[in-house]
Amino acid sequence: MPDHPAEPQPTREGAPTRASRLGADDWLDAAVEVLLEDGIDDLKISHLSARLGVTKGSFYWHFTDIATMKSELADHCKKVQAAAVAQIAELEELPPIERIEGMTRLMSDPRRWRMEAAMRRWAETDESIADSISELDGQIFQIAHQAMRELGFDEAEAHARATTLLYAGIGFVHAHGRLGEATPDDLRIFLDILTRK
């Protein structure tokens, strides 16, 4: 399976100094980190400026206002979600059990958790982010549902099992920091329960 980036990574060590010439990407990198660490409500020019070690005036060389930056950040995050949708779509050619295993690995991947959790919180107040989350959830459900039908479950059973898989993935995203990562045995047992006739 091709490796798609699940979460943006910082592009440099530490914050730039005042002598550094910052570009729009530097500001967006900092915005991603604020989103991941503190949430969208803390995305403020003063917060970003302090993080980057520059004055607020530097921000205005690249963005009209914070709303403009949020719009660009939203576009970036939607591309991350689109990459996840594409990665899940690639699973459609696999046999049903392998398809479900692939989705489970994706949903339980710690590299995705921070971005996924931050975007789900943001989606509560931003419809465009909510739409990209819904697209990903819909893709997961459809592929899981089809796999369950291929495994011989009737419509009601397939729907319930696909829904459980989706909700478990969302649960992994929101609970991992408090409950720790699911172990390989956890995932194996979970999949066995879901796919057992």
From TrEMBL:
Residues 1-20 are annotated as: Disordered. Residues 44-63 bind DNA. Keywords: DNA-binding. GO terms for molecular function: DNA-binding transcription factor activity; transcription cis-regulatory region binding. Residues 21-81 form the HTH tetR-type domain. SUPFAM superfamilies: Homeodomain-like. The keyword DNA-binding applies. The keyword Manganese does not apply. This is TetR/AcrR family transcriptional regulator.
